[in-house]
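Deliverable D2.4 — example input (structure tokens):
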């Protein structure tokens, strides 16, 4: 006999728990924990990747030091180096050969055009001239005889006393003798001119800067490599001053403009000149325009070959700035500097005025507020990201 369970209302109201629900709950909990861990791991790896990307990008961005242009005062004039040259500078050679018998002026002597500088003995030329004159006299005598004969034959031809052929021969002989006379006359004149070159005269007003001969020296005619100049003369009443003007200032180098000169040997003294001409071409090697300034020098204070400072007035004030030379970038397109703007490098074209060595003058292309990169890399391109070095602005 079994004892049956007595059911009460309380026991009938409670549901019976099934043992199969326990594993499902455990699995759901494990899945949730696994998903949470995966999400945390993905987020962590994402954050690490982003941090690594930022670090890589930051490491790849070059760190630069910058400097600001130093403003300069407005330019009223430019001072450029110049070299003086004589207005006329010429070596004096002999035009005939012989021996120097006498000279009259030494170095430093001021001479006038036509002054006798030296005399040359030319015995060979003298003998040749005498021979040529004798040959001319012979030719003249032969011509006179042939002329008389031709005139007689022409008179006899009128009476048919001689043939036409004989008369034509007489006339032709007269013409040949006339040509001989002309030839000998030309030879005499040539030798007379050579003889006149025994005396060496000054070709222009100037000063003797060199004397390269002495009494008894053998003189060779001409200006060949074997010949040696007798004197060297320079006209210094007016001097030419050649000035290389930078391309940026070439607009002020116009013929007719005025210029002033100063020299170290004459402190406080100013010499005035005028721009006579320019080369009308920029030298591609130096980027300068060659200008000639003519300066009156009646007192001879300025000497040929002297170094002078040439002051050229600018038509308007030009504001300039100065930057270090190690900021320049030499590119195929021209001269550039790298300016940092909004965290990026911008390659800006500039125009250079004067070169001071460690620094250069910039007359256009920059503002005083620009931050210019010092020692820029040759590979730096416009638009590249850059970072400023802490304390790097100078």
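Example output (designed residues):
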């Amino acid at each position: 006999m079994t004892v049956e369970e007595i059911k009460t209302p309380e026991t009938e109201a409670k549901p019976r728990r099934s043992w199969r629900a326990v594993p499902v709950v455990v699995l759901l909990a494990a899945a949730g924990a696994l998903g949470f861990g995966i999400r945390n791991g993905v987020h962590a790896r994402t954050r690490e990747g982003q941090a690594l990307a930022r670090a890589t990008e930051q490491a790849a961005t070059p760190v630069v030091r910058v400097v600001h242009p130093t403003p300069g005062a407005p330019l009223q004039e430019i001072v450029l180096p110049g070299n003086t040259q004589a207005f006329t500078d010429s070596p004096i050679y002999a035009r005939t050969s012989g021996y120097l018998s006498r000279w009259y002026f030494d170095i430093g002597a001021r001479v006038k055009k036509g002054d006798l500088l030296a005399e040359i003995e030319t015995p060979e030329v003298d003998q040749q001239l005498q021979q040529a004159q004798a040959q001319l006299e012979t030719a003249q005598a032969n011509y006179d005889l042939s002329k008389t004969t031709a005139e007689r034959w022409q008179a006899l031809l009128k009476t048919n006393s001689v043939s036409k052929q004989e008369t034509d021969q007489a006339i032709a002989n007269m013409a040949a003798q006339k040509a001989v006379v002309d030839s000998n006359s030309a030879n005499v004149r040539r030798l007379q001119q050579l003889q006149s070159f025994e005396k060496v005269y000054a070709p222009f007003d100037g000063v003797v800067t060199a004397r390269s001969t002495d009494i008894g020296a053998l003189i060779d005619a001409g200006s060949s490599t074997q010949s040696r100049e007798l004197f060297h003369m320079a006209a210094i009443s007016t001097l030419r001053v050649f000035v290389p003007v930078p391309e940026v200032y070439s607009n002020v180098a116009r013929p007719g403009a005025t210029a002033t000169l100063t020299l170290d040997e004459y402190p406080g003294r100013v010499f005035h000149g005028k721009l006579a001409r320019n080369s009308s071409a920029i030298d591609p090697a130096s980027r300068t325009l060659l200008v000639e300034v003519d300066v009156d020098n009646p007192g001879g204070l300025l000497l040929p070959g002297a170094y002078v400072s040439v002051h050229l007035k600018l038509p308007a004030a030009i504001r300039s700035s100065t930057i270090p030379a190690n900021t320049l970038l030499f590119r195929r397109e021209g001269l550039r500097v790298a300016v940092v703007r909004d965290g990026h490098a911008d390659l800006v074209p500039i125009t250079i005025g004067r070169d001071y060595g460690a620094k250069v003058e910039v007359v256009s292309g920059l503002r005083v507020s620009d931050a210019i990169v010092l020692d820029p890399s040759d590979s730096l391109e416009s638009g590249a990201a850059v970072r400023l070095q802490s304390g790097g602005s100078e």
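The CA atoms of residues 144 and 243 lie 67 Å apart.
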